[in-house]
UniProtKB/TrEMBL annotation:
Molecular-function GO terms, alphabetical: heme binding
Gene from which the chain derives: soul5
Localization per Swiss-Prot or TrEMBL: Cytoplasm
Role: May bind free porphyrinogens that may be present in the cell and thus facilitate removal of these potentially toxic compound. Binds with a high affinity to one molecule of heme or porphyrins. It binds metalloporphyrins, free porphyrins and N-methylprotoporphyrin with similar affinities.
Keyword Lyase included in the entry's annotation: no
Name the UniProt record assigns to this protein: Heme-binding protein 1
SUPFAM superfamilies membership: Probable bacterial effector-binding domain
UniProt keywords, alphabetically: Cytoplasm, Signal
Assigned protein family: Belongs to the HEBP family.
Signal peptide: 1-19
Subunit structure: Monomer.
Major site of localization recorded for this protein: cytoplasm
Organism per entry: Sparus aurata
Gene3D superfamilies named in the record: Regulatory factor, effector binding domain
Pfam families to which the protein is assigned, alphabetical: SOUL
């Protein structure tokens, strides 16, 4: 009986982990990869939406630089080497979306900042991903979280990210929302080769309960692709 329960728990854990990495058809804006990080919509206001993400594994690397663009190029190349076979098993791993960058909000423009980039691991590698061969690359489990999200188009740059992060944080401060203020996540869903209809997001991690009082709390359109 105990063996059965242990097996059942293990099976449920697999389902839970894989459930957060779903088919891209579940998200209208995830059009360039077969798998994307999926979420449960919580509420939506004219200024932002709130999403719940389950726990998932990412392959990550840190890069210290004064400018986000240079940090992201170096970090991306390092992670791309990992998914194209630079791991202990020599496995090629499919690209997913979004590419996530942890952005330091307390950095002054004359200071170097530590930027952490992550590639979401596909469902089939969520349980036992191959270990990196590069010591600067790590497998990290991001815990379940709720996030405030602002979406914008065009190219993700230091300016566009900062502008949208400031807009989102101002909207959150106006309604007294509690959120982690020392960093935010920049999420990108497109290849550098994509010129039009690009989709980017800014995420702030919710603290306590999300502020939805001014929202319609309506279901968000999850069909391909807003």
């Amino acid at each position: 009986m105990m063996m059965f329960l242990a097996g059942l728990v293990g099976f449920l854990l697999v389902l839970t982990a894989e459930a957060r990495v779903g088919n891209s058809s579940e998200l209208a804006f995830c059009t360039e990869t077969e798998q994307c990080l999926v979420f449960d919509p919580v509420c939506k206001t004219p200024q932002y939406e709130v999403r719940h993400y389950g726990s998932a594994k990412w392959v990550t690397t840190d890069e210290t630089h004064y400018i986000m663009e240079f940090a992201s190029m170096r970090a991306f190349r390092r992670l791309f080497k990992y998914i194209t076979g630079d791991n202990v098993e020599g496995k090629k791993i499919e690209m997913t979306a979004p590419v996530l960058m942890k952005m330091p909000d307390d950095k002054r423009f004359w200071q170097a900042g530590v930027y952490k980039m992550g590639f979401l691991l596909p469902a089939e590698h969520q349980q036992n991903p191959p270990n990196p061969t590069d010591d600067s690359v790590s497998i990290v489990t991001l815990p379940a979280m709720k996030v405030y999200v602002k979406t914008y188009g065009g190219w993700m740059t230091s300016y566009s990210d900062k502008s949208n992060a400031n807009s989102l944080s101002s909207a959150l401060d106006l309604v007294g929302a509690k959120y982690k203020k020392d960093f935010h996540y920049a999420a990108g869903y497109n290849s550098p080769m994509t010129w039009f209809k690009r989709h980017n997001e800014v995420w702030y991690v919710v603290e306590d309960e999300p502020e939805c009082s001014s929202s319609s709390e309506e279901d968000m359109d999850m069909s391909p692709f807003a």
